[in-house]
Amino acid sequence: MAKNIAFSRNKVPLYRQLIMWFVRHLQNATATLGEIWRAPISAGMTIAVLAVSLSLPAALQVLVKNAEEITSSWQQAAEISLFLHDNVQERAVTNLVTRIESYPEVERVDYIDKTQALKEFKQVSGFGEALSLLDSNPLPAVIMVTPTEQYTSPNNAKRLLEKLQQQKEVDFGRLDIEWLQKLAAIIDMLERTVLALALLLILAVLLVIGNTVRLAIMNRRSEIEVMKLVGATEAFIQRPFLYTGVWYGVIAGALAWLLVQLLVMWLNQAVQPLLGLYQSEFEMQTLGLSEFILLIVCASGLGWLGSYLSVRQHIKAIEPC
User: Fold this and answer.
1) Correct CATH for 80-174 of 2.70.98.40, 3.40.190.10, 3.40.640.10, 3.30.70.3040
2) Is 109 strand, coil or helix?
3) In whole angstroms, what is the distance from residue 236 CA to residue 63 CA?
4) Which among 243, 250, 240, 249 has a CA at the least distance from the CA of 219?
5) Which 3 state secondary structure label does DSSP give 251?
6) Residues 171, 169: Cα–Cα separation, whole Å
7) How far apart (Å, rounded) are the C-alpha atoms in residues 184 and 181?
8) pLDDT digits (tens, 9 = 90+) for 180-199
9) What is the model's pTM?
């Protein structure tokens, strides 16, 4: 008789085994979600702590994302000014402009002759009457070189400047990259800060979830002892607690995303009047769909890991008397 029962169990189709496996996990997931719903105060406080912990690195990531978006639109900031010798002929200047335009690092070349340079200087400086008293034009001809997007970074723009200054028609070149280097250093510092803060808060999330699951295990100690007495496997006992950690992570991740959205909306209202003074149409970006999904996946993964570490340690220590 026992052989027939064992034989019949082995003959259960694979698809039915998969369906039953899915049903069991679905039952555990919905049951643990119900337990969280029935304890709104304690569960809510835990989720709030997790949400704040997750929202801090997410908000810094949004800050870095917007800073990179702004700098990518400042391609003119790396513009190079080449001041030519006074005795350079127009034909030599034309050949020089043609050569520079052929460089793969260059996107645009503008030539400003001495007459145009003096005219623009009079309009900008306000010394038009004083300059008209001079016997000759003291300003040199200038070639304005705009690098491609790949060469707008401080290091690449500086290398391009050194290359252009080797031309015999060029007296000297000018590139104001000091502020670009500072901006690049600030963005790099922010990226490192995001990484360091994320690692610290990951540890905090693991500790919070692990401690929450530990308390849940202690509260159900008697139930776990009975389950072990009747032959329940450790996987069966652990499953509800693992789903508890996953749900904590999912809900906290969604709440963290909402907090970041509200923060960006609040900051955008303060930034728009300032950008309006500079005729800028820039609008702060927030977390996209892929980043939202990544946040939820990471949060749920941290919830599962924190629960797993706590469950493996404490459930094994519970043995029926």
Assistant:
1) 3.30.70.3040
2) strand
3) 44
4) 240
5) helix
6) 7
7) 5
8) 677 777 778 877 888 888 88
9) 0.64
